[in-house]
Amino acid sequence: MRVWRSLDDVPTDLGSSVVVVGNFDGVHLGHRHVIGRAREIADVGQLSLVAVTFHPHPFAVLRPEHAPRALTDIDRRCYLLAEAGVDDVLVIPFTRKIAEWTPQTFVDRVIVQCLHAATVVAGGNFRFGARAAGDVAMLAEAGRKQGFQIERIALDGGPQIWSSTYARTCLAGGDVEGASEALGRHYSLVGTVVRGDQRGRELGYPTANVAIGDLAAPGDGVYAGWLHRLDPKNGQARVGEALPVAISVGTNPTFSGERERRVEAHVLDCTDLDLYGQRVEVSFVARIRGMVKFDGIDALVETMAQDVTKTRELLRV
C-alpha cells in the first residue's frame, strides 16, 4: 500500500481509480461495508482503490474544543484501511484553507484532477466541502457532468448505525464489547511501552505501561484483553503469540498524586517479560470492574488477584 501525504505526492500517471472518501476513524463496520463494495467495483474494472482521508480531524482545526478523541492515530488508520482492502491512501492535511473549499472545488481538485476517479463509492450520509454543503446528490450531478460514476451505500448496522461516535460513546462508558461490535474487532490501543513507577512489579503484578495521549480509551476500570507485540520494522503488524492481560485504565486513585490516565497491562503468568521501548497493541475484550480507591495495599493486592482470576475466566486461559 502507498500512502500519499498531500495531493502533490500522488503520481501523475495514477490512471483511473475507484475512490472512497471519509475520516475513517476506527475503520468500523460501516466503513468496511463501503470499502467492500468499492473493492468489488475496482476488481471488476481492474482499477486501484484509493481512500481519501484527512488529518488532523476537521474539528481539531475548526472547533478544537469539540474535537473528538481519535479511535486510531493516522498510521493505524492507514494500516486498517489497507487491511480492509484499500490499495492506496491519500491523507489530505486539513487546514482552514482546505476547509473553505467548495464542494465543486473538492471534486475538481481531488476526485477528477488528482485521482481520475471512474467511480466514487459513498455512504448515504456523506457530506463534504465548506460547511458540509456537498452531499451524494451533488456528487452524482458532478459525476454526470465530469464523467465519473457514483454508488451510494445505505448506512450499515442495527439497531444502532455503526459510527465512530457510537464506538467512542461505548468506550467512554466502559462498554468495550459494544465498541468491538461496531468495529468488527476488539478495540485496541497501539503505543510504545514506557517505564512507569514500578508499583505493579513491587506488588507482584508487573505491567506494561502505554500512554493514552490524545487517543480514545475505555472508561476508567479494569478489563480483560490481549497484548500483541508489533514488528519493529512495521509498527502495525503483529509478531509472536497473543499474551493474555489484565488491563487497568485510569489514574491509580489508591496512590495520591497521580493525574495522568494510562493503560497498564499485566501479562498473566509472566513476571520477567521486558517490553520497555517496544511497540505493542493492547486489545480490550471485556470489562471486569470500575476503578476503586482502596484503603490499603492488602485490599488492592487481593482485588488484583481476583482480577487475574476473572481475566482467566473471560479469556479461557
Describe this structure in words.
Helix 5 crosses helix 6. This protein folds into 2 domains: 152 residues, HUPs (Rossmann fold, 3-Layer(aba) Sandwich); 129 residues, Elongation Factor Tu (Ef-tu), domain 3 (Beta Barrel), CATH 2.40.30. It is built from 10 helices and 12 strands. It starts with a strand and ends with a helix. The strands form 2 sheets. The protein has a 6-stranded parallel β-sheet, with helices on both faces. Strands 7-8-11-10-9-12 form a 6-stranded antiparallel β-barrel. The chain is of the alpha/beta class. The longest helix is centred in the C-terminal third of the chain and has 19 residues. The model has no long low-confidence stretch (mean pLDDT 93).
How are the strands of the biggest sheet laid out side by side?
Answer: 1-4-3-2-5-6
By DSSP (H or I, 4+ residues per run), the number of helices equals 10
Overall radius of gyration: 22 Å
Mean pLDDT across residues: 93
SSE class:
alpha/beta
Low-confidence stretches: none
Q: What is the helical fraction, as a range of percent?
A: 25-40%
Q: So what's the CATH class of the largest domain?
A: Alpha Beta
Number of domains: 2
In total, the number of strands is: 12
Q: Name the CATH superfamily assignment of the largest domain.
A: HUPs
Strand content: 25-35%
Instruction: Please describe the biggest sheet, giving its number of strands, its sense, and whether it closes into a barrel.
Output: 6 strands, parallel
Specify the CATH architecture of the largest domain.
3-Layer(aba) Sandwich
- Terminal Cα span: 36 Å
Mass-distribution shape? elongated
Q: N-to-C SSE series?
A: EEHEHHEHHEHEHHEHEEEEEH
As for the CATH topology of the largest domain, it is Rossmann fold
